[in-house]
Structures are given as C-alpha cells and as structure tokens.
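Weekly structure sync, notes
Attendees: PL, DS, HV (note-taker this week)

Item 1: chorismate mutase
DS walked through the input record. Source organism listed as Rhodoferax potami. Sequence as pasted into the shared doc:
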Amino acid sequence: MSLLHKDLPQARHCDTMAEVRSHIDALDERITALLVERTHYMSQAARIKQDVTKVHDQERIEFIAARVRRMATELGGQPDVLEAAYRALMDASIAFEHREFARLRQGETV
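Item 1 (cont.): predicted structure, written out as tokens:
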C-alpha cells in the first residue's frame, strides 16, 4: 500500500506557540487512542502465542522499522524520528507483552 502525501492532512500554518501546542494536543489525543488500540492487540498476541520465546521477534521488529521508515519518507516526514519512536514503542510493547504472557499463565502447570 502506498501512502499519497496529498491525501493526508498537512500541518497548518501557525503564528503562535499556542496554535502549535493546540494542534499537537489534538494530534496526541488521536495518537493515544490508536496506541491504546495497538496495545489491545499486544494483549491478544500474548494470549495467542504459546511460547514466551516468540514474544520478542527480531525479524518482525526490523520489518516494522523498515516499513515505518519507508512510510515516513513517502509522506515527506523524518524517517529517523519515526524509526526511533517506533523502536521505543516496540520495546515498551514487548515488555508489556511479556507481563501479559506471564499474567495470563499464572497458576498454569507445565
């Protein structure tokens, strides 16, 4: 799927920091909702995976990082910034998934 730069909302021109912050706050609300949704999928992954060694998948991490870089470039963004943000997100998601994996299996006998 190719993302077309012209089809996505662009940052509006701002004359004051208050305007900049207002737009950023509005975006943060949307981003937070999407990240909550993403986290719910991490819970499902922890439930579905039967082996804790499958929680950390380096090949998938590299695939996502490359995909995010490509999308950022296509959208006229900053690939280094997006990759760094996604790597931090993935690290936090993996830690969460490990906790979920353990929580879901508390009391199970091997």
